[in-house]
Amino acid sequence: MATRQMIVAICLTAAVCLTEARSVIQEKAYNPDTSLTTPELIAKYGYPAESHTVVTDDGYILTLHRIPSSKRVAQKSPVLLQHGLLCSSADWVISGPDEGLAYLLADRGYDVWLGNARGNVYSRKHVDLRPSDKKFWDFSWHEMGVSDLPAVIDYILQTTGSEQIFYGGHSMGTTMFYVMASERPEYNTKIRAMISLAPVAFMSHLKSPMIQLASKVGDELKWLLDLMGVYEFLPHSDLLSLIGEALCNDHAITADLCANVLFLIAGFDSPQLNKTLLPVILGHTPAGASTKQLLHYGQEVESGKFRQYDYGLVGNLLKYGRINPPDYDLSKVTAPLAVYYSDNDWLSAVKDVDKLSEKVPNLVEKFHVPLEKFNHLDFLWAIDVDVVVYEDVIKLLENY
């Protein structure tokens, strides 16, 4: 009984401390954008915001966010923007209307749709399964490419009456597209042009020490996660958001530490980091993923190939009828493709981008960001991303 009372007392004390901490943060440095949803962020800046629901062929219920075309300018084609690993639709709007790509496109008359991949904070539903079920998390970005994107694209086309869309992806958002376009090549004709920001397909030259280490112990990591019954990786958490607000706001002495954690993953670029945005980023990221997504990327690093998930010798024979998983055939990615890359991207190395560029048959632009320290996350949140990258993206879309 005494032990139970002690546990209750500790929990109550922790709850009070967290409440007090949030109160202090709100008074001193709290940015309300940290806790707003994507539609709330969009509406805050005076744009119309919609939420739509799409059901995939394997039962996942996805949430799409939309900024409809402005009636003040000539209406243009729909654009689907797809986030990267552990992220969400918020990626494209948290930097505000002057720099967020979603706003910049909406201002020019595009009908902007923001995807949310299965398993993230906005797409945690299924017609039969619950997130507490192991089977719910049995997916990687392969299933997102063959099931999520086709369902989303068909929904957008049906809703808008358009025959084609523009597609813009960052990081895993590009991976998903390459999977779709190679495994379901009929969807290439539904794409007017595809924008690849920090593209990820081949990964053998990535520089991130954290990702390299994780890839080296992939089998051991999978065994440990399975043993612990952990199938979801870094879900969205109010506690993490609170920590981000407390430790990463630009008034905190630990703000540089937060920046360095991001830099260790994506590459160092202090000049382009907006430190005021850090707690907002951490209020929306991580947004959740399956452990299988991470393990699949680790396999790509180790194999040097762009191929389907490796289930081991026996598992591959049962799944694919062969010892090794099949490669994705990038020669089938026939939609007009533009890649945007940089020298200091620790997750999308120049040599790997070059290899990708050689294998796709319809590369219409290969844009090298001229800033020496521009990193993987700068394609979303750099101080000058609107001028350095997005101006060229918009010009390319205008030409199609």
Automatic annotation (TrEMBL):
Keywords: Glycoprotein, Hydrolase, Lipid degradation, Lipid metabolism, Signal. Belongs to the AB hydrolase superfamily. Lipase family. It comes from Cryptotermes secundus. Residues 100-217 form the Serine aminopeptidase S33 domain. The gene is Lip3_10. GO terms for molecular function: hydrolase activity, acting on ester bonds. The keyword Cytoplasm does not apply. Residues 1-21 form the signal peptide. Residues 39-95 form the Partial AB-hydrolase lipase domain. The active site is at residues 171, 345, 376. InterPro entries: AB_hydrolase_fold (IPR029058), AB_hydrolase_lipase (IPR006693), Hydrolase_4 (IPR022742), Lipase_euk (IPR025483). GO terms for biological process: lipid catabolic process. It comes from the Eukaryota. The keyword Protein biosynthesis does not apply. This is Lipase.
